[in-house]
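Format is sequence with structure; example below:
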Amino acid sequence: MLSKYAQEISEYLSSMMGRSIIITDINGIIIGSPAKERIGEFHPPSIPCIKYKKMSFDDAEGAKKLGVWYPGSTVPLFYNGRVIGTAAIAGEPEVVLQFTMLVKNQIESMLRERILSPDTGSPQKKINDLVRDIASFDPSSGDHASLSMKASHLGIDLGRPRGVIAVFFSNFRDLGGLENNPVKINYENYSDPMEAEIDSSLMHGRVIVLLREMFQDPQTIIASVARDRFVVICPRETEENKSQDEEIEALFESAEKIHSKLKGASLETIVGVGFPARSLFELPASYKNAWEVAGIAERLSLPPGAYSFNRLLLEGLLSSLGQNAALRYIEKKLAEMKNDNDASVLTETFKVYCESFFSKQTAAEKLHLHRNTLSYRLAKLEDRLGISLEDFKQVTAFYLAIRMDDLQKNDVLQ
């Protein structure tokens, strides 16, 4: 496996770094070197490096004792949780130390690209590419005929009405302690810098299988669009007497099933549902909308689950608003209050009060406060912000500004 690519990688990195970089197999035999006459030779420093799975250094004197040509550093190379060989960089240790991990990571990355990544001609890779083309398609100027033709070669009719479901994995990179996770790959208990990436790479295929088990219609497009993001673009059967809300609800039910299915695999997800697309020309906007919904849920720290755009209408509107003088004025007032120790308590009290239809009784119950305590907090907030809670427009403006601030705090998916 390593021997197949060792010489190519050695020559490439040696020319790029301006230093001799050799690669050995698990037995310390050189299988890649810019000096081809060294291929097949034994490299003594590689043995302890392989045995202890640690980087080693040898100065000129140490190298001479080992019978090697030059001083330098040697690092283990990992694949699938196991050492498969080493890489050695020639030069005084204090000089090459700064390059050692860079070279190691580069070699492992090049191996990962050639071994772990899906083949460029694989059906799933073509599906992933198709989804990226859909996401970037401009209905006003794009070549819809070419895109439709590309999809038809994969047996997909993009002319059909479709719904888009965005799936974001909130714990995709932290699955080590999940005993019930069927997509977890087991490794020996030692540190491997590639382990997490290998784990995620192998999981992608399993997640695609889990989603395909739910959506067996061959017209359903299931793709991996990032390390922790997948998308399902499913055809919709439109009926004349079926309202848009009913179509959204049907998509939302599918999103809930996705969340439930993956939760059973110990994978926590935020699943976003965009507005239904009637044709290819509406599909890119629907795709973007689904990810906007997932992004809003993530930024507001909402719990894992399914969310649709019609359930987050206010948040959707606020996330699209730009800066203006009124907003800057309110943000300045809020910023002045943030220096106070009780600012977060007052802000949360204010939000709950507004979301309780301005009922002090309901807000007090939700916050588990005595009504007098709630009134005291609200009075302090009126004084700090210089507003009256009797002024509906002022209260609404400050509430919306606070919600916009919440949306901007943890901008992960946008």
Q: What stands out?
A: The longest helix spans residues 93-115. Confidence is low (pLDDT under 50) at residues 173-199.
